[in-house]
Specification:
The complex is a heterodimer of chains A (about 140) and B (about 180). With about 140 residues, chain A is an alpha/beta fold. Helix content of chain A is about 35%, strand content about 35%. Chain A contains 3 helices and 6 strands. In chain A, a hairpin with a 3-residue loop joins strand 5 and strand 6 (about 130-135). The N and C termini of chain A lie far apart (about 60 Å). Chain B is α+β, with helices and mostly antiparallel strands. The chains are: A alpha/beta (about 140), B alpha+beta (about 180).
């Protein structure tokens, strides 16, 4: 193989790798989001999730933080956030801390306040409530 | 004491109680769905994220204010950036939350019974990546039908919070802008 051909091949390879990196970082990654709904979720009640966070936040984070969870509890309230997405709170009306969920969509919730509801989403930790994002009613 | 004077002293007592209670009354305003924007766009690439689950409370009588936010709740347009933000920069498994605790120092200048936009000065401690730093900033508290909205901005030197990692100062700005918008 001539030196010229070698150089052409090397340039083509570098260009292909550069394009691959560019495509992965800027195109693929902006079109492919994490699909929490297709992950296996940890099944838990809202009361038990809150109790675990209140007992030992570090331990609870090691179990639930950044993981898909399927939470069942009593629907306490339905609202909209500042972006218009539906938010719900699960738990007990006499509790200081509950489970606060931001739904993935603006779709209305068919369950009524006081009824039981099961939601799958991503646990992002705890502030005054345990917080779940990307929620979908199961 | 006749009935009239008894009645007037009773009225005086009731008035006194209601007035003093009013003077001591304080309202706690709270939200669990405030917004926070993060922007560290450097020379080339847009690095920006939003989080719609800011937990915030403030007290009108004292001006005490707190904001809390979970790092994993920041949404980037680009999943890879979100992953790098969490894993390489914010180390959000180890430091899952950031918060601000402080005071609106000029709270007395706000008339909570009159709608309008009031400039506010805020002083307190901002904790990010497990590092607490004293900070001050300015913002606006808007009252609409008695309901407050606080908008404010923090300029944060990333390295002050012990955040290291490749690209800071290059593709990622040295200073990040954190904008808050909380409807209570």
């Amino acid at each position: 193989m001539s030196t010229k051909n070698k150089i052409i091949i090397a340039i083509a390879l570098i260009a292909a790798i550069a394009f691959g990196v560019y495509y992965y970082v800027f195109v693929y990654s902006s079109q492919h989001r994490r699909q929490v709904q297709s992950e296996t979720g940890i099944v838990i009640t809202s009361d038990s999730l809150v109790a675990k966070y209140q007992a030992d936040e570090k331990l609870a984070n090691s179990l639930y933080l950044n993981k898909a969870v399927i939470v069942t509890g009593v629907l306490l309230s339905i609202d909209k956030n500042q972006e218009g997405k539906t938010t719900v709170v699960l738990g007990r009306s006499d509790s200081f801390s509950n489970v606060s969920v931001t739904m993935i969509s603006t779709a209305p919730i068919t369950q009524k306040v006081g009824e039981s509801i099961t939601i799958k989403g991503l646990c992002t930790g705890a502030l005054s409530d345990v917080v779940i994002t990307d929620g979908v009613v199961e | 004491m006749n009935l009239k004077s008894k009645l007037s002293s009773l009225i005086a007592i009731v008035l006194f109680i209601s007035l003093t209670q009013n003077a001591n009354a304080q309202n706690v305003f709270a939200t669990k769905s405030g917004q926070i924007y993060f922007n560290a766009t450097g020379a080339l690439v847009k690095i920006a994220a939003v989080n719609n689950q800011v937990d915030s409370k403030f007290v009108d009588a004292t001006g005490q204010i707190i904001f809390g936010v979970l790092i994993k709740g920041f949404k980037f347009e680009n999943q890879l950036m979100e992953d790098h933000f969490n894993e390489n920069y914010m180390e959000s498994t180890q430091y899952p939350k950031a918060d601000f605790k402080g005071y609106i120092t000029n709270i007395k200048e706000i008339n909570f019974s009159k709608d309008g936009a009031y400039p506010i000065q805020v002083e307190g401690t901002l904790t990010i990546h497990g590092v607490a730093q004293k900070t001050t900033t300015k913002g606006t508290l808007t009252l609409a039908q008695g309901k407050p909205t606080i908008v404010g901005e923090f300029n944060v030197k990333i390295k002050d919070y012990g955040i290291s990692g490749m690209y800071i100062g290059d593709k990622i700005a040295n200073q990040a802008v954190i904008k808050l918008n909380c409807k209570y």
